[in-house]
Amino acid sequence: MKVKEVAELVGISVRTLHHYDEIGLLKPDEVTEAGYRIYSERNLEDLQQILFFRELGFPLKKIKEIIHDPTFDREEALKLHKRMLLKKKRQLDQLIETIDKTLLNMKGEIEMADQEKFKGFDFSHNPYEEEARKRWGDQAVDEANAKLESKSKEERQELGEQFNTIYRKLAEVRHEAPDSAIAQERIHEWYVFLNAFGNYSKEAFKNLGQMYVDDERFTKNIDQFGEGLAAFMRDAMAVYADRMD
Amino acid sequence: MKVKEVAELVGISVRTLHHYDEIGLLKPDEVTEAGYRIYSERNLEDLQQILFFRELGFPLKKIKEIIHDPTFDREEALKLHKRMLLKKKRQLDQLIETIDKTLLNMKGEIEMADQEKFKGFDFSHNPYEEEARKRWGDQAVDEANAKLESKSKEERQELGEQFNTIYRKLAEVRHEAPDSAIAQERIHEWYVFLNAFGNYSKEAFKNLGQMYVDDERFTKNIDQFGEGLAAFMRDAMAVYADRMD
DNA sequence: TGTTGACTCTCACGTTACGTGGTAGCTTAT
DNA sequence: ATAAGCTACCACGTAACGTGAGAGTCAACA
Hints:
2 copies of one chain form a homodimer. Chain A has helices spanning 3-10, 14-22, 41-55, 60-68, 74-106, 127-138, 146-172, 181-195, 202-214, 216-223, 229-242; strands at 30-31, 37-38. By secondary structure, chain A is an all-alpha fold. The longest helix of chain A is centred in the middle third of the chain and has 33 residues, at 74-106. The interface between A and B is large, with 39 and 38 residues. Chain A binds a DNA duplex through helix 2.
């Protein structure tokens, strides 16, 4: 298929396809003598993936990394997409509820706190990266930020659902061997999930696992999904990291 | 409230607030001696509006026009938002369905046409803008609409009554055959009534009927006069149009 | 009362993801 | 073989902020 054909099929511009080619995000499988881009069936599947990610607000650079990752599992990714879309749907519900309340508020029928007026708006920048950064940053910080702790607790509650799902899936298999297929499969999911937001090198990923055990705040949080989950994750993550290269 | 406070409350960056000030989208009601921005309660309400529009993908320029328009009706805007969000939700459902199908497709359980793979992606040129443009922008686009829009509130109310009367009369006969004499009679009334606003060609009239079914806003509005009324009207209008020449 | 430390301000250049011409070569139908 | 419609490749433009840099402000503690 030629550019325009593809563009019309998926509802994007020709320029966008050019752009994706330029930055190496989606290179057509074939190029004619005259330099015309010819897209294959595979290309279309990749494009579908790309648009899914884009729809969720991922930067193209990250999308490129993700789909070019040899360990990239299309099925896992699709399932993750689905969960995120479901989350987005819930967020929309939030917004809709906020509108309804605002309308009532305008008629003076109810009172509204400032916070409430903005419920559901936290699309903008994902909290995961923040959390990850907080973990590493907090390492050096002393007790003086007892405030920060309570704050991060609130934040964690906000993004809890996402994590909970994966934690629960991990907890299910926590009595398996850390290097078992099922354990590694779940850890892979975890890895994909985390990597979607911040780049974890092999070492960083391993260290993260170690910290789950070393930092009791995390241990406590994680182990509430199942006794010994933190330790299991550390081990499984270490195995996963070692097999990474 | 100072910048950071506001930023944290609504989940945006300080820079964003600065930016909105720069481009005159949201200027704080108060500025201290030292140049500190102080946001009022009103400012927060405006910000809420702005974020609603932004969430739906409106360019800031357009948002500025909209909320600075003296004829801007906050309540109406909120209701429009709600409809748009509901539409977006349905689009998400589409995407989710597409994912489910893709997953099944990967397992070879079903076949998928290329088009299907991209269902739900047509955010590209969102249909909202079309509606919004009709509502707030290019009045010149639709003269009939412009007429309607220029009517006073009372006039509109009266008009509403008239619509209701006709809808009710149509609903009475909605179980008759669309090409029956009584149905065609009522549709004729409808046609005459509509032509008071603008000239509907044969095709336009037919399309209008189709839209009653395709656009859920109309469907909902119409069907509240009787289940299936929208569909009945579409059919009857098609018959009427075909007999027109 | 002086000194932090957290906030705030204003430049001003950087970035992402394309849009928007413009010019020139290619392909297909008449 | 000529026009209509695609295609390509620059290359600059734009929107909505991000990201320091350098400097002033404010409340709290020593």
